[in-house]
Amino acid sequence: xxxxxxLLGLLAGGPRHGYDLKRAHDDRLPxxxxxxYGQVYATLGRLExxxxxxxxxxxxxxxxxxxxxxxxELGRDRLAAWLTEVEPPAPYVSSVLFNKVVVxxxxxxxxxxxxxxxxxxxAHVARMRELTATKTRPGASVGDxxxxxxxxxxxxxxxxxxxxxxxxxxxxxxxxxx
Length: 178
Description:
Layout: H1 2-11, E1 16-17, H2 18-28, H3 37-49, E2 53-59, E3 66-71, H4 73-84, H5 96-107, H6 110-136, H7 142-177
């Protein structure tokens, strides 16, 4: 549901049509998964249905006709409320990485689990280097730096977990297969 709130936030600066919203989303959230045009328009439809946005005009700029949308007062209030809501930490471990390690221990033994952990560690280190290069390149935007810092923080936590798990593989193997 955060895509809806991102769109509301982008509309807080003034009316925009779906194409502009998609481009602004992808520019302002540079390390996030790009949003699809279909998702933008479907989300705008739900936001309009719920009274958070309203059409504000038509534009044709040498192409197909585009409807611009603007925030309603209800939309501004809902965006403001969302921005004050603290996100609870995730209550469950939900990660493909975690699942693969447990399954490797269950089915393949310590050698394959160790090999997997080492390969995953190398992939994480490579991604951290890419992100560090992104945020330190000349002309990096604040959005690039903030997104890279966020991703690096998560990768760093994963790397610490991978290192700890590598040290515990033999004990984990015994426990999981018992």
